[in-house]
Amino acid sequence: MLPRVPSSQRGVTLIGFFVVCVLVGFMALVVMKLFPLYNESFKVRAALEAIASQPDIAQKTAHEIRTLVMRNFEVSDVDRFTDATIKNALSVKRDPSGRQRLVRMAYEARAPLFGNLDVVLKIDESITIAGAATE
């Protein structure tokens, strides 16, 4: 007795398999291109939180805070900034009450996706620190 053959076959066709592979490949490409940008934003946030937790941060000037942030970036392997370019991205300002300062890191990170298409991530992180040292 021969086994019963189903009237229609089931499964993925070769073309369907290729379509799935192309979609998975495209998503993997996008993730590989976006991960470094998001990882950098997490490192920036961690650097700001690290300087905010230092015990003597209230007495530091804006220049000293920038230096501390740059040291954190060196350890965290954030190599987008130099001593000259950090001034454009990092600001240290007093709040209206004069009791606290706002440290804000705002910049755009750009990376090529494919061809002439780029991905831009706007990073805008800020922390409040106690003290009103001289700017």
How are the strands of the largest sheet arranged?
A: 1-2-3
* Total number of strands: 3
Helical amount: 40-55%
Distance between the termini: 93 Å
Low-confidence stretches: none
Instruction: State the order of secondary-structure elements, H for helix, E for strand.
Output: HHHEEE
* Derived structural class: alpha+beta
The global form is elongated
Q: What's the story with the biggest beta sheet?
A: 3 strands, antiparallel
Number of alpha- plus pi-helical segments:
3
Q: pLDDT average, as an integer?
A: 88
Provide the domain count.
1
Gyration radius, in Å: 25 Å
Provide the β-strand percentage band: 25-35%
Explain what this protein looks like in three dimensions.
The structure is a single chain. With 135 residues, the chain is of the alpha+beta class. The chain has 3 helices and 3 strands, in the order αααβββ. Helix 1 runs antiparallel to helix 2. It is elongated, with a radius of gyration of 25 Å.
Ordered list of secondary-structure elements with their pairings:
Blueprint: H1 14-52, H2 62-76, H3 86-89, E1 90-94, E2 100-114, E3 117-130
Antiparallel strand pairs: 1-2, 2-3
Helix pairs in contact: 1-2
Condensed summary:
The protein has 135 residues and is an alpha+beta fold. It has one domain. It is 43% helix and 25% strand.
Give the key terms.
single chain; 135 residues; alpha+beta; three-stranded antiparallel β-sheet; 3 helices; 25% strand
